[in-house]
Design brief:
Elements lengths: L4 H7 L1 H29 L3 H26 L3 E2 L7 E5 L7 E7 L2 E8 L2 E6 L13 E3 L2 E3 L6 E2 L16 E2 L1 E4 L2 E4 L13 E2 L5
Length: 197
């Protein structure tokens, strides 16, 4: 009932996401209800074993994803200076490296000889932009395909979504990012990768 932009806009993305996370609870309860009903009449243990294996796999994948997300170290900064985020070779072409700067997830994208940084949170439904890739010159969210220009964080016309951007500089092979986000849609000239000779 709330899976359209009207509710997303009016509830705000964090409230909308929490509401939609209840879908997992409802789905789990439905599966448990059906499985327990079937298992009452089933005498073969194979079905119970398959159900158990399925449950372990699903819960294991969720646990793995949570551990991977927790592993992103927070790079804290006590002042107003650029901080070392990663190295150029840490990022694949047209992909991103996700870092946490002062508690905010930042996606650092490498495309051509350019590096740009923007918020890792898609404005559509809080999707992880850093897990997407650059397609047709735009950062493309892996969840629903929303796109943003990497240098400005603005969606191409006629769309109006914008995400915050970050200042970036490259020293040698190291990428430094300013820890404070700029207003959504602010154009930041991409840092240039200079090939070492």
């Amino acid at each position: 009932a709330t899976s359209h932009d009207f509710w997303l806009t009016n509830l705000t993305a964090p409230v909308w996401k929490r509401l939609h996370m209840l879908v997992y609870l409802a789905y789990g309860l439905l599966l448990a209800h059906v499985a327990l009903g079937v298992l009452q009449a089933e005498t073969n243990g194979l079905l119970a074993a398959l159900l158990g294996v399925g449950m372990v796999v699903v819960l294991g994948l969720h646990w793995y994803a949570a551990q991977k997300e927790k592993a992103v170290a927070d790079i804290s900064s006590t002042n107003d200076e650029f901080v070392l985020a990663c190295k150029v070779e840490d990022i694949s072409e047209n992909r991103a490296r996700i870092v946490s700067l002062a508690g905010e997830r930042v996606a650092i994208f490498k495309y051509g000889n350019n590096v740009s940084a923007l918020s890792n949170v898609c404005q559509h439904q809080n999707g992880p932009l850093g897990e997407g890739k650059i397609m047709d010159g735009c950062v493309t969210c892996p969840w629903h395909g929303f796109q943003y220009l990497p240098a400005s964080g603005a969606s191409p016309a006629p769309f109006t979504e914008k995400v915050p951007t970050f200042k970036v500089k490259i020293v040698g092979s190291e990428i430094f990012v300013h820890p404070h986000p700029l207003p959504p849609g602010t154009h930041v000239a991409p840092a240039q990768i200079h090939e070492e000779k």
